Amino acid sequence: MPRHARTRGSLRTVVEARWSPAAMLHLRSVQAFAIHATSALAHTEEMPGDGHARSSCCHSNQEEIQMQKKLIALAIATLASGSALAQSNVTIYGVADVTFDNVNASNQSSGANAFERLNRVSSNSSYLGFKGSETLGNGLSAVFQLEGSVGIDSASAFSFSRDSFVGLQSNDYGKVVLGVLSGPTRVLGNRIDVFAGATGIGYAGGILGKLGGQVMGTTNAGGTYVPGVTGRSSSQYSTFDTRWKNAISYTTPTFSGLNATAVYIANENKASGTSGIDTSGYDLGLTYKSGPIFAGVTYSALNLKNDATNYASPAVTYIGTNEKVNDFRIAGLYDFGVATVRALYERTELKSDAANKNQKQDVWGLGATYNVSSAGKIVGQFYKANDVKGDAAISDSGARLWAVGYEHSLSKRTILKATYANLKSDNNVPVAYDFGINATGGATKGGTVSGFQVGIRHTF
């Protein structure tokens, strides 16, 4: 096949891939019509005959030729109008991430949650999504995304519980979206995490933002309160590492590597009086990317006025007026090509009107990856939560997480992986720490949860 023919074929494939099915049907119909009209025009112009015949039909032929030309012009105009259909496109994407796990809860106190070893199959943040955009002109586009979790291990119900939004994006002025959103605090933590997709038992969300295990995401957002035996597949990570519901976000264009995001979380539970609930908040972030360097800083604040759902223990008695929890993170990453190093520092702080109930906790973490071949890499990270300090300090209330793994790429979209993780809670933690993704449900104060998992991750 001639080279130019192959090029045309490849170009056609690329172009057609960007058109919607309706637009492609429209295009092919117009193409067929244009070919037919052109063929008819050529046949008319080349009609044989003697001079008398030509003289007698000349006027008729000229009218037919003019009509054919008008039809071809109409076909071309219609083809051009079809480009509007191509400007709106939908992409289907997702991740299937499943592992076989062997998890262990050791040094546990007696009780319903205690167990030694458990085998399970886990779906690690598998999801399915739809996203697209429509060009509106002058550098402005309408954008949307609908993304939902898929429980591949247990065929759990599908819902658009992940990042789902609609909004406008401008080349010059940035992007505004509304819906369910990952704030810059969560995004920064995941960016520094060494594991593919920031998921699995080694995920740093098992220790970040918990304030001694007290501050949790709500059940729907991704957290549960001290999971029991029936909750061994539930997640347990902080409010700041869940997605914000009822949120609006603005992201600036990138200027010299700098990019900023601001998120506002609306309070749809607001009511008057001291018993009214206020769960409004905001999440701010600034990142910098230049060559091998990445750095970011975030600050997030959430009101917890009369809101027990964001605590691991609903029995907490000092939830009251102007209760607020905030989280500050600063992190960086350097890519050497063959290896990366990364670090993160976090402070989570609770402020309350109640006397002697202000608390804060620092967490720091280090991570690294090393490419052992063109297809394989070793990953590892260590995170430590210090004791809870402040007016209501709690001694021996920290935790330590360390995890190592190996990831082998079978292709650009498919990897095999193996991970070992170990998470130990101190003896006086208000609520025991558990893995952030697919918690064991067996963690207790002073105990250790550990596990080994092997699996496959496919991106499409």
* CATH class assignment of the largest domain: Mainly Beta
CATH fold-level name of the largest domain: Porin
User: What is the structural class?
Assistant: alpha+beta
Strand order of the largest sheet: 1-3-4-6-7-8-9-10-11-12-13-14-15-17-18-19
Query: Can you give the mean pLDDT?
Result: 79
Please report the distance between the alpha carbons of the first and last residues: 31 Å
By CATH, the architecture of the largest domain is named Beta Barrel
Tell me the name of the CATH homologous superfamily of the largest domain: Porin
Largest beta-sheet characterization: 16 strands, antiparallel, barrel
Please state the overall shape, judged from the principal axes of the Cα atoms: globular
Q: Could you list the spans in which at least 5 consecutive residues all have pLDDT below 50?
A: 1-19, 44-58, 79-86, 218-235, 313-319
**H/E series, N to C?**
HHHEEEEEEEHEEEEEEEEEEEE
Q: Tell me the number of helical segments per DSSP (H or I, 4 or more residues long).
A: 4
Number of strands: 19
Strand percentage lies at 35-45%
- How much helix is in the residues? 10-25%
**Radius of gyration from CA coordinates:** 30 Å
Number of domain modules: 2
